[in-house]
Specification:
Blueprint lengths: L3 H14 L6 H7 L4 E10 L5 E12 L5 E8 L4 H17 L6 E7 L7 H15 L8 E5 L5 H15 L23 H16 L8 E5 L3 H12 L3 E7 L2 E4 L6 H11 L5 E4 L2 E4 L3 E3 L1 H5 L5 E4 L18 E3 L8 H9 L3 E3 L1 H4 L2 H15 L5 H26 L3 H20 L12
Parallel strand pairs: 3-4, 3-5, 6-7, 6-12, 12-13, 13-14
Antiparallel strand pairs: 1-2, 2-4, 7-8, 8-11, 9-10
The structure holds nicotinamide-adenine-dinucleotide.
Length: 431
């Protein structure tokens, strides 16, 4: 694969390979997506015209279980991006030991430019187009950027119509009323919070002496910002696609959230009931947010935010990647040389897919868990895998990113060798 984003993602694999003895066959296998589907989705628009949208679903690997990964609606979605995200999902599921492979989907669309009915027709059309490619034991979609539980509900309903039976386990991140799990909506941010807490304890840092900036005040960013602020961390800056705010004294995150939810924009406010007053703050750009002098920087928006061009400007001590792929592999080297420790996406944001797994388990067993049960199991998983990866990083003197890939690759290698090669030349008969 020659494309840049995917090539960049595979660099991580190359680094991890050096620390493991894993068969060349397994490595070669993991360098290629198992299958990639491109579909054209016809949608009747509200004005009667017909528009064709491009959609994708990539199943990168299913050695350890059915494919698992979200669906992204964004104008920049391309096959290369979806393949990279599916690659990350493969390693993420292995890093936190979920019985899933990696997959991802997407539609090239700006969902803000179409009506709700057009969005529903597009989402149902996407499922019509990929129905033979997904299933509870084949590949299970979920939400990602600009997709949400409502869309997952349409997916489930459309798939069930096609199959003529109710199939809740075909998609996760559904509304509660359609078999969703408690805690799924907050899982990515909550999981990231558990990772940060586990690492701060290892690094002997107290929350009250720790400042935080969050890029991307969306589903995941809001939750992690809110939990950190509740735990005593000082969240001094947050941003969305329109820009950011910075308050040296720290922001009142529940108030900023309240304002964002009621006004669709970010303001530094302190709210009492429904009345919000502006507090002292600076308006900053996203570039300025990334370069702030804070202890923890949390990119929680999109990929490729910290690159070779701006890595040298980063002053944070720790980066926790809540977004997928926010730091490029070139930037990794600059950050490492400057002593910035990066905690990788495949661990930090794995809370989302972990609770997706819990949702799939609940759908299949028919037994539903309380929010406490979900969060306890999530905490146990995130802390256990964070500590295991930390141990590998220390033992081999490697970055947390490479350690996470080593951890995942070991599991993938075990599964691939347990399965054996299924090529045309049985038992080396071709030699
Ligand atoms: P979201 O759409 O709810 O939020 C994204 C936020 O980023 C929005 O507030 C948007 O305004 C902001 N944003 C967009 N471009 C920006 C830019 N250039 N600078 C600053 N902010 C910008 O999406 P989300 O679900 O919170 O996902 C965010 C990231 O986390 C994505 O990379 C996604 O792949 C990753 N992730 C999400 C989940 C999940 O369960 N939601 C799970 C794993 C990983």
């Amino acid at each position: 694969m020659s494309n840049s984003l995917f090539a960049d993602a595979s660099q991580r694999l190359e680094l991890a390979m050096k620390h493991l003895s894993i068969s060349e066959d397994a490595i070669e296998y993991l360098k290629h997506p198992k299958s990639s589907l491109t579909v054209s989705i016809p949608v009747r628009m509200d004005n009667g015209s017909l528009r064709i949208f491009q959609g994708y679903r990539v199943r990168y690997d299913d050695t350890r279980g059915p494919g698992k990964g979200g669906v992204r609606y964004h104008p920049n979605v391309s096959l290369d991006e979806v393949q990279s995200l599916a690659f990350w999902m493969t390693f993420k599921c292995a890093a936190v030991n979920l019985p899933f492979g990696g997959a991802k989907g997407g539609i090239t669309v700006n969902p803000k430019e179409i009506s709700k009915l057009e969005l529903e027709r597009l989402s149902r059309g996407y499922i019509d187009a990929i129905a033979d490619f997904i299933g509870p034991d084949i590949d299970i979609p979920a939400p990602d950027v600009y997709t949400n539980p409502t869309i997952m509900g349409w997916y489930m309903d459309q798939y069930s119509i096609i199959r003529r039976q109710l199939c809740p386990a075909v998609v996760t991140g559904k509304p509660l009323a359609l078999g969703g799990s408690l805690g799924r909506d907050t899982a990515t941010g909550t999981g990231a919070f558990f990772v940060i807490e586990a690492m701060m304890a290892k690094l002997d840092r107290a929350p009250t002496n720790t400042t935080v900036a969050v890029q991307g005040f969306g589903n995941a960013g809001i939750v992690v910002a809110e939990l950190l602020s509740k735990a005593g961390y000082k969240v001094v800056a947050v941003s969305d696609s329109k820009g950011g705010i910075y308050a040296k004294k720290g922001l009142d995150i529940p108030s900023v959230r309240h304002f964002k939810e009621s006004h669709k924009s970010i303001k530094a406010v302190y709210c009492k009931d429904t009345v919000c007053n502006i507090v002292e703050h600076d308006i900053i750009t996203n570039e300025e947010l990334l370069a702030l002098e804070v202890d923890i920087l949390i990119p929680a928006a999109l990929e490729n935010q910290i690159t070779a061009a701006n890595a040298k400007d980063i002053k944070a001590k720790y980066i926790f990647e809540v977004a997928n792929g926010p730091v490029t592999s070139e930037a990794d080297s600059v950050l490492e040389a400057n002593g910035v420790q990066v905690f990788p996406d495949i661990l930090v944001n794995a809370g989302g897919v972990t609770v997706s797994y819990f949702e799939w388990v609940q759908n299949r067993s028919g037994l539903y868990w309380t929010l406490d049960e979900v969060n306890q199991r999530l905490k146990q998983k995130m802390v256990e895998e964070t500590e295991a990866i930390w141990k590998i990083a220390r033992k081999l003197s490697i970055s947390m990113r490479t350690a996470a890939y080593v951890h995942a690759l070991a599991r993938l290698g075990d599964a691939l060798s347990a399965k054996g090669t299924r090529d045309y030349y049985v038992n080396g008969a071709h030699k």
